[in-house]
Amino acid sequence: MKKVFPWAFAVLAVVIFAACAREEHALLVWLDNDGWAEAAIAAFNEKYPGIEVEYQNVGSVDTRGKVSLDGPADIGPDVYIMPHDHIGLAIIDGIAEPVPADLRKKFTDLILEAAIETCTADGELYAVPISTENIAFFYNKDLLGSAPVPSSFEEIRRFAERYNNPQENKYALRWQVDDSYTNYFFLTAFGMELFGPGMNDYRNPGWDSDAARRGVEFHHSFKKYYNVKVADATYDSTIGAFQRGEVPFTIVGPWGIDDAKKNGINFGVTKLPAINGRQPRCFSGNIVAAVSSYSKKMGEAFAFVDFLVSLKGETILYEQTGKMAAWKDISAIPGLRDDVYMKGIQEQSPYSDPMPIIPEMSQAWDAQKALFTFTWDEQLTVPQAQQKAMETYDTSLAVAGKKR
Question: Is residue 110 part of a domain?
Answer without folding.
Answer: yes
